[in-house]
Amino acid sequence: MKLEISLHASKLNNVAGAFKGTSDPYAVITHIATTPGSKPNVLGKTEIVKNSVSPNWVKVIEVEYEFGTPFKVAVQIYDEVRKGENKSMGSATFDIGEVLGARGNSKARKLKQGGTIFCHVAKAQGSGLLRLGLSATKLTNTEGFMRKSDPFFELSNKRDGAGGLTWDNVHRSEVVKDNLSPKWKDAIVSLSVLNQADLSKPVLISVFDNESDGNHVLMGSVETSVKALQGLEGSTLTLKKKGKSTGTLNVQKVEVAGLETVTAKMANVSVSTPSSSTFVPSASSGGGSSFADYIAGGCELNVGVAIDFTGSNGDPRQAGTLHHLPPGGGFTDYEKAIKAIVGVLAKYDVDQKYPVWGFGAKYGGVVRHCFQCGSSEEANGVQGILDAYRQTFKSGLIMSGPTVFTEVLQTAAAKATSAQEAARAQGKQAYTVLLILTDGSVTDPAATAQILKQIRNAPLSVVIVGVGSADFSSMQFLDDASSGDIDIAQFVSFNQHSSNSVALSSETLHEIPDQLVGYFQRNGIQPLASVVRGDDEIVVEAAEEEIDLTLDFSDDGEIVVAAGGDDFASGFGS
Q1: What gap in Å lies between CA 332 and CA 242, rounded to an integer?
Q2: Is 392 exposed, middle or buried (0-12, 13-18, 19+ CB in 10 A)?
Q3: Which of 106, 161, 204, 334 has the fewest beta carbons closer than 10 A?
Q4: Per-residue pLDDT of the chain (574 residues; tens, 9 = 90+)
Q5: CA gap 98, 344 in Å, rounded
């Protein structure tokens, strides 16, 4: 899915030096290498905000994010020094999945050098670029006698904020010094950032007089749209301030390129009568509701875990068996899978409470196909899941069989449906992911496939991880059960990704965004309005050590990674 990253900071440490005024900060965003063989790369830099220690950068950086795959960025802030080396003002790292999963899609972190950096992510909508050429004529001077204004313009889009509709800056032009009839360089703006590729959406053009202290003075503004501007190419608009004309804006060039319009999209759609139960959305498509929309609206991902305690796992007291705890504090493959997969999902779960079930063991001589693991109905956090797993071996169970998790599926589906109904009654949304860990194929594939069909309309995704070296070929029934129908299940063999936790979580979870969107869209449930949080509502995390990342700034403006920026840990840890 395509996301856009925006940044602002507050109370940065002024590093300009004595008698040199206030720092001119800008930020560079670098994608940290988190997978084997990958390299860090600079994603982009913001504009420079003059004379400010609390910059609100306008430029956003677009990235491609895949659910289940770690995506970490380093944000490094610099004070621009015209003659000399730019000065560092601090750095911080953000996990984009964590930011997306946070309420309001925002996180904040203190900086070692002073101040706080705020990171926000949002869905990037649509495609295409706008090239806009503007000039102005006879602007009203705001500088007074014997001086002329230094005008620049800003483009803003309208969004629904906490206090109602508000204008957000998305582009700022260069400053033209001492000129009341300026001609600016062509502005090139992503349409997904400006108006979500909807040419009819309102756009505000504002002209300001640049002030060295950062308190720029409004010279005039006009509300329009890209569609309107296309009809005004070669014509003019009147700038106004407090209802009075303050100059003329000349629309010299309006070029739209790379825009995939709704008409073009519809032309590629096959018109037929679909099955009433079939819905195949794309969570990463440019149009329509997406996974990011639902998460931005506060949809919470709940997680349940089910663990195989059948006898085929072997005696956990014997070394080499699947439930045997490695000496020296290691983890079983079951635990490694839990850490990798639930570790990703936990970023989207606010309460961090997880039911943990077991299946395939005897209690009191009776085989149980769904029983509680641990002393509590819900475990607290990923560590709580691991604790519940280990406590189960002290509960008097006898590992047995057969491998049946139909009862687990039904229990999880009922819990997921109840959670969504309760959420909806409160004006909220909830969706559940069930992680099943098993050492072998199910005893009765047909019965399991039938249950999956019965629960396919629940707000539930099922991910099944096969642990051990058994032949899992018969698990193909999962694909067959969903062929041409609603797909809620995914099977992955742990051994195929046993040396790479990133590959395991990516392969296991990549279908969930489409499954979540599919459930809500089938049921006519649209995303809720995006949750908006003020800076004072965001929990500010403690400062971290400065990241080991060196950038090389060339004279032509290009920025590349010179050293560092590698954050990949091979395997699953000890």
Answers
A1: 69
A2: buried
A3: 161
A4: 889 999 999 999 999 887 778 999 999 999 998 777 778 999 999 988 989 999 999 888 988 888 888 899 999 999 988 777 889 999 999 999 999 999 899 999 999 999 999 999 988 876 678 899 999 999 999 988 788 999 999 999 886 544 456 787 888 899 999 999 999 999 888 887 888 778 999 999 999 999 877 788 999 999 999 999 999 999 999 999 999 999 999 999 999 887 654 334 434 443 333 333 333 333 433 346 889 999 999 999 999 999 999 999 999 989 999 999 888 888 999 999 999 999 999 988 888 999 999 999 999 999 999 999 999 999 999 999 999 999 999 999 999 999 999 999 999 999 999 999 999 999 999 999 999 999 987 888 889 989 998 999 999 999 999 999 888 877 766 755 554 567 899 889 898 888 778 888 888 898 999 999 999 999 999 999 988 888 899 999 999 988 888 888 877 677 888 888 877 544 454 4
A5: 9
Residues 259 and 6: their CA atoms lie apart, in Å, by 23
Is the bond preceding 40 in cis, omega lying within 30 degrees of 0? no
Nearest to residue 26, comparing CAs of 103, 70, 90?
Answer: 90
Q: Are 402 and 311 in contact (CB under 8 A)?
A: no
Q: Which two tokens stand for residue 235?
A: 């014509």
Pairing of strands 106-110, 116-123: antiparallel
Q: Where are the beta strands (DSSP E) in 69-172?
A: 72-79, 87-95, 106-110, 116-123, 129-137, 151-161, 164-172
- Residue 333 gets which letter from DSSP? H
Amino acid, single-letter form, for residue 323: H
φ, ψ (nearest 5 deg) of residue 123: -65, 130
Q: What is the 3-state secondary structure (H, E, C) of 391-415?
A: HHCCCCCEEECCCCCHHHHHHHHHH
- Could you tell me where the beta strands, DSSP code E, fall in 193-299? 202-209, 217-225, 236-241, 244-257
The three-class DSSP label of residue 72 is: strand
pLDDT, position 497:
85
- Helical H segments across 333-476, by residue range: 333-345, 381-392, 406-425, 445-454
**DSSP state, residue 375:** S
Nearest C-alpha neighbor of 66 from the set 496, 435, 505: 505
Chain position carrying tokens 């202290």: 213
What is the distance in angstroms between the CA of the first residue and the CA of the last residue of the chain?
Answer: 32
Task: Provide Rg for the chain, Cα atoms.
Answer: 28
CA 57/CA 46 separation, integer angstroms: 6
Q: Residue 104 and residue 532: Cα distance in Å, rounded? A: 5
Per-residue tokens: 286: 């440019």
Instruction: Report the distance separating Cα 221 and Cα 155, nearest Å.
Output: 10
Q: Is 4 helix (H, G, I), strand (E, B) or coil?
A: strand
Are 29 and 117 contacting, i.e. CB atoms less than 8 angstroms apart?
no
